[in-house]
């Protein structure tokens, strides 16, 4: 299945959805039309009838996403046509609901970062459960250069992913972080050759798409663990294990183990 939206594409094949930011002339900078399209695409991804069991997020052309489309902003921080004086209003009304949908998605997310990945685009990339970047990719928190602050959950995720000192360097200095260094810092999971990025992301997504229902529970447990106390997380694991133990995939997993064969999970 192929869906063409304004500045965004969605392809669903073999239980894998590929969401592509599709405004290469602006390095896929996010604008209101693209964000509206993302909302529609997520409806299709979440539709059980489409059978999506893994999601790849990437960008068309030579960049993943250059962040918000600054060319469409005015000095009040909003889009020129509306001229609100609250630079955070768009975050609350548009970006945050979309980020929450990514956080609560029923399936694993693979971010395939090609080229520049900046600003709120970096926030979307870091929503991936697995983040793969090509060798030409770099990450950038350039908000200080236009007099704004990091957003899209960046100030929450970065200290937890790379530590406070490196988070400060990324956000306060606002310098480019090459893919190789991002891997060394633990910001991302893997680096691929420029011409192999989508192949490696696709192979990883294909493996995840054959995984059990418990992958949804695992990703939710990891999100919860960031702020949970130890006793709270023990209880979260207990509740999730009860749910997992009642799935058809658990029955299949045990049967396959006893029969010494690979399990054939259905996601149920």
Structural description of this entry:
The chain is α/β, with parallel strands linked by helices and 268 residues long. It folds into 2 domains: 2-209, 2-enoyl-CoA Hydratase, Chain A, domain 1 (Alpha-Beta Complex); 214-258, no CATH class. It is built from 10 helices and 10 strands. The strands form 2 sheets. Strands 1-2-3-4-5-7-10 form a 7-stranded mixed beta sheet, sandwiched between helices. The protein has a 3-stranded mixed beta sheet with strand order 6-8-9. β1 and β2 form a beta hairpin. The two termini are 22 Å apart. The model is unreliable at 74-78 (pLDDT under 50).
List the domain count as a whole number: 2
Measured by DSSP, the beta-strand proportion falls in 15-25%
Unreliable spans are 74-78
Total strand segments: 10
Task: Report helical residue fraction.
Answer: 40-55%
Overall residue-averaged pLDDT value: 94
The CATH superfamily title of the largest domain: 2-enoyl-CoA Hydratase, Chain A, domain 1
Q: What is the radius of gyration? A: 19 Å
Largest sheet: 7 strands, mixed
In CATH terms, what is the architecture of the largest domain?
A: Alpha-Beta Complex
What is the fold named in CATH at topology level of the largest domain?
2-enoyl-CoA Hydratase, Chain A, domain 1
Q: Write down the CATH class of the largest domain.
A: Alpha Beta
The helix-and-strand class reads alpha/beta
Features:
43% helix, 3-stranded mixed sheet, alpha/beta, 2-enoyl-CoA Hydratase, Chain A, domain 1, 2 domains, 7-stranded mixed sheet, 268 residues, 10 helices, 10 strands
